[in-house]
Specification:
By secondary structure, the chain is an alpha/beta fold. It has 7 helices and 10 strands. It has a single domain (31-56, 84-226), classed as Rossmann fold. A 6-stranded mixed sheet has the order 6-7-8-3-9-10, with helices on both faces. The protein has a 4-stranded antiparallel sheet with strand order 2-1-4-5, with helices on one face. A hairpin with a 2-residue loop joins strand 1 (2-13) and strand 2. The longest helix is centred in the last third of the chain and has 16 residues, at 174-189. The two termini are 23 Å apart. The mean pLDDT is 91.
């Protein structure tokens, strides 16, 4: 589903070139659960931004669901992000003045194709997250774990093919973090493609496949450990 071919992304900073990604090639199949790990500055965030179509590579090719991202204009790219990619962030990014249900429904505001079942789907997701009795509450009235579960519901409301999770347990206590990781495990078991970015090796162990970055390149890919020799 995801194909990166010799992708490079370099930045100029303080007069120097930072090679955030330096020739990364990666293939992720539909339904995989992959953890991207690495130290600070290894290229994790840059890779996540590229996978989420929030940034473009300087060179190389990124193909998502058979669509070559480099060929899309900004409008088409925005539509693809809204329809095919769900984002879960460490800092939640729920709007404080909206209710939980309104936050979850937010992606539909940017969609030109109305869906009469959208609200029912959002309510069903919130029920699954254990928030069925909190749909009228605002984020400040919820615990950190509840807010993150609402954020996951928002990420899933458009039925995305790809779920990107950026340090989704970073602001949670251990109990809430365990609940969020269990939910990601369940989504993967149901066929959802999940890419999790984390610096925590214990959290990364939840993913059957782990890719470690170092200095903008792939240092290790656990898939190779199970590859059958030709």
């Amino acid at each position: 589903m995801i194909e990166l071919d010799a992708v490079r992304r370099h930045y100029r900073m303080s007069g120097q070139t930072v090679r955030a990604l330096d020739g990364v090639s990666l293939r992720i199949e539909r339904g995989e659960y992959v953890a991207i790990t690495g130290a600070s500055g290894s290229g994790k965030s840059t890779l996540l931004n590229l996978l989420g179509c929030l940034d473009r590579p300087d060179s190389g090719r990124y193909t998502l669901d058979g669509v070559e991202i480099g060929r899309l204009d900004d409008e088409a790219l925005s539509a693809l992000r809204n329809r095919r990619i769900g984002f879960v962030f460490q800092s939640f990014h729920l709007l404080p003045r909206l209710t939980v249900l309104q936050n979850v429904m937010l992606p539909w505001r940017f969609c030109t194709e109305p869906d009469a079942s959208a609200e029912a789907h959002a309510r069903a997701l919130l029920d699954r997250m254990g928030l069925g009795d909190r749909i009228g509450h605002r984020p400040a009235e919820l615990s950190g774990g509840q807010v993150q579960r609402a954020a996951i519901a928002r990420a899933l409301v458009m039925r995305p093919t790809l779920l990107l999770a950026d340090e989704p347990t970073g602001n949670l206590d251990s109990r809430s973090a365990a609940a969020v990781l269990e939910l990601l495990d369940e989504l993967h078991a149901e066929g959802q493609t999940v890419v999790l970015v984390t610096h925590d090796q214990e959290i990364a162990q939840h993913a059957p496949r782990r890719v470690r970055l170092r200095d903008g390149t792939i240092e290790h890919d656990s898939r190779a450990e199970h590859a059958v020799p030709a």
